[in-house]
Design a protein that fits this description.
The protein contains 28 helices and 22 strands. With 788 residues, it is α/β, with parallel strands linked by helices. α23 runs parallel beside α24. Bound molecules: glutamine (GLN) and zinc ion.
Amino acid sequence: MSARPTLSHTLGFPRMGAHRELKFALEQHWKGDIDAAALEVAGADLRARHWAVQREAGLDFVTVGDFAFYDHVANHIQLLGCEPARFGFHGDESALSRYFSMARGVQVDAAHSHAPACKHSRSSEGEPALEMTKWFDTNYHYLVPEFSSATRFKLAENRLFGEMDEALQAGHPVKAVLLGPLSFLWLGKEKEAGFDRFSLLEQLLPVYEQILGRLKAQGVQWVQIDEPILGLDLSGPWRHAFEKAYWQLSRRAPPILLATYFSPLQENLRMACQLPVAGLHVDAVRAPEELLGVADWLPSYKVLSVGIVDGRNIWRTDLDAALGRLRPIAEKHQGALWIAPSCSLLHAPYSLQAETAQNPEIKSWLAFAVEKLGELKTLKAVLNDGEASVQAELEGARVACAARRTSPRVHRADVALRLARTTADDDHRLSGFARRQAVQAACLGLPLMPTTTIGSFPQTAEIRAARAAFKRGQLDEAAYRGKMQAEIALAVRKQTAIGLDVLVHGEAERNDMVEYFGEQLDGFAFTANGWVQSYGSRCVKPPVIYGDVSRPAPMTVEWTTYAQSLTELPMKGMLTGPITILQWSFVRDDQPRSITTQQIAWAIRDEVVDLERAGIGIIQIDEPAIREGLPLRRADWKAYLAWATRAFRISASGVADRTQIHTHMCYSEFNDILPEIAAMDADVITIETSRSGMELLRGFGDFKYPNEIGPGVYDIHSPRVPAVSEMVTLLKKAASVIPARNLWINPDCGLKTRGWPETEAALVNMVEAARRVRQEIATASSERLATV
Ligand code: GLN
Ligand code: ZN
């Protein structure tokens, strides 16, 4: 066993601040209320405070380089001097203003622009922001670097070194953090046909060498280099590049701790252990089974950093279990042992301190970022000085974890029984699609290619104010209900006037599509301040699923039946599906995600059945998050898709053949999981397609998607009103790959972020487009008849 003391550190810390100070400073700056200098002060202040928190928790280094005004990948784009040329920066803009231009795009107000009226120059048209996409399997979004054969790298930005100086001057021992060169390239995107971004590696490495040399000269003790792609399925060239790259990087660098997280290393394990670096961090929460193998393969002169505290979730660590895992590793690994959260704490809320209103029992089960550092402090103390020094902390964790294991708040016999009794009959509809389609056609009497919307209508300031006043108790239940009913009635009137075939109630009563249901389901808790950065200044406050889920009472029946009472046209009920509810919540770590999802599925099924009983003939179960739940390793996709699609089917299969089940998905790129989407067996799927120029449809056509489908005919992300002719073209394109009898006509997604004027104008055009295409089809077929 190593004689050296165990050290503790963190891979990163939340940036926003205890009270989302960074969010508010950023938004003030963007509005023009504070200048860049004031924003920089706010940033420096947060960093100083966060380093102090790390030192108070006894971490052996503060981590520097994890801070960003928008996103750490965007920081690297500037650090490495590869801002895309399309932004046309002149060199007279400050680095910060260029940074925000890349992050947020350049908008030019045409009325105030003095630029020449050339249609294609950026000054008159603006420039879209860098694309944003999900950081591995988290809900954090990074800005995607753009690469082409013209990309050049250079050490171009001193921000990182400045932050290093701040920390050193404050007297902290410093570990710098960088995103590794291979992960940086991997996360980017080629902006030139036929170009392979991998070819940029050779050019990129010298810049990293330069950065590392400079950090060393500054007196940085360690550099953590994050290469999370080591947990992905890498093709040969990417895998093989690691060894050479790290030989080159380690030459002039401070000791390097190579950090991996989010997924098991598997075939990359030996290679990761043998790279020429001074230490390796592994995620022992996501891949506990690999820990012994890592201890076996890692040479004894290297540091082994064990990510033992879950950086992705909000549960208090079972310290005894953690020690049970750490002790054999400490025995086996002859070299130095460090302990850390599994990944950066960027993905955890700041601290429990603000959760004063939380149920004390539930609160005692939780640990946010600050509390997680406290757990590391205790673990380190046990490993270095024995249990006696932290008896009270260990006992506290023991009591809380034991209580959570047995609490009736968590474990419900009725829910367990229901799951145990799920049979093969529960996860499919009574009849196959062909029969259901015939029955539904007879019951619903819809025209060819019916028109509908995805659920929400504009959430006006008035709606939001009413909801907030109700929540604060300033508006009583009856008054609130009256206001929401008035909104529903308005939506019904407008839809009728527009001429839509299948109406929706408009979702005015919903703040958020997951929170709304979580608030009404058993097993969910909400936090006061559990914010996590989603992108830029935007934070989300995911619900906490702490216990067995069930539905104590109907959730949407009253609003939906009220809406139906106002019209003869079919009113579509609107629910959020089990996978999306799971995916956008903090989930239990004491049972598999598949079980939690199945519990939610039964709760949603209860609602579906109640809606049917109340006379609602069409019910939509939204699953926009199904694709983002895909595991990082392709080998795990099949198992996930099997339980995820089964959960959907359980939620949808409690109804008669005549009831039409819809689902909705956004964010395209579904072509690789089409068989599984088909296996969900929704009668109708509405799906985002317009932004991809209906690319997706080809997939559906080639695959011969068997059920009905509504490819979105216009993008709802901007107020632009699409012309009738534009939508006619898209519809004809759709009709060329999908039989017309299976087609629906609808926008890409919900309309809650839009205003009424553009919404009405666009839908009027959409209905007109539908009329024209139907007419053309009718004419064509009567001509065909005439020639027979
Ligand atoms: N029914 C939801 C809405 O219309 C769907 C939202 C979504 O797909 N993200 O707002
Ligand atoms: Zn959508």
